[in-house]
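ZP: hey, is the adenosine-5'-triphosphate complex queued? I don't see it on the tracker
AM: it wasn't, my bad. submitting now with these inputs:
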Amino acid sequence: MLKKIFSKDIALDLGTTNVRVYVRGKGLVVNEPTVVAINTRNDQIVAIGSNALRMLGKAPKHISVIQPLVNGVISDFEVTEKMLRMIFNKVHHDSFTLIPRPRVVASVPLDVTEVEKKSLEDVILQAGARTVFLVERPVASAIGARLPVQESIGNLIVELGGGISEIAVISLNGIVAHKSLKVGGELLSKNIIDYVRENFGVLLGQQTAEAVKIKIGSAASVSKSQEMKIKGRDLVSGLPREVVITDTQVREAVLPSLKIITEGVRDTIESTPPELVSDIYERGVILSGGASLLKGLDKLIRKKINISVYLVDDPSTAVIRGMGLILEDFDNLKSVIIPSARD
Ligand SMILES: Nc1ncnc2c1ncn2[C@@H]1O[C@H](COP(=O)(O)OP(=O)(O)OP(=O)(O)O)[C@@H](O)[C@H]1O
Ligand SMILES: [Mg+2]
């Protein structure tokens, strides 16, 4: 009976761009944009996830479309709590019979303050969780990538999300060296918006920039050049205008941000003890997170540090899959759980 109760635990990866939930024994059940649409007349949620994202930049005045996280940390607590409550209720409704208040394993970025950590725990508890356990994101990601994090081996994981990049060397279940950067896929899209505004005098919407990045964005030159027609608002006339952007231009737009990431990887290796560096040299660097899907990013990093670079399968879900493995094998992996900030 006890075992059955515990089999209803869930894992939560509350990311800047996407929120993901894994239910023990069931797998990934929620994978949605971290976006909430609220009717400001009555303070009620109109939509969350992809339904809310579709309203971004298109909603009438009384509907405010909110992205409640910025660079990996919660910026709007009330909205985050509302969103999580809705997600927990849905998961409970779809998967649970008996226990309305789940135990939650939640991912936390490495460089958060105790106050930010406590707020994350409080929000999850207020949204309906019974207990919260925290796991550091790159550790979860490394477990998801099936790296031997429990052994005394240097594992270098580079987790590139929408709002932050976390570069970490993990050995014996803990972080040996790390670097967190406020650079992620969302900044790359913003770089494209800035580039098009400065070079074409056209203002692009967030979702158009995102589409450009995914379709023709790259970090290293591609064999066949590509271009894309995009529409935005002409800054002089105020009217819609179409322009054509090439893969070379997109690369030029995002390269300064990518340089911050490659330098972060280099700095992290430089601050790693020599024995572990030799492991990393032999085993290579592992890339994960949604932003690692940018074409040629593995190639660019390899060129800068001269060490093999591998992209994890399904990089966007590495963190939540790792947390799923922790739930499924809690007794074996519970040593990666870090202390609560609420004690
Ligand atoms: N094919 C692709 N090419 C380039 N970028 C991509 C691709 N697919 C997804 N991304 C980017 O990945 C980012 C989202 O990654 P992810 O879901 O890992 O972020 P997150 O976990 O929500 O954020 P964080 O961990 O930083 O808080 C977005 O910026 C998205 O544009
Ligand atoms: Mg993430």
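AM: back. The first strand starts at residue 10 and ends at 14.
ZP: great, adding it to the tracker
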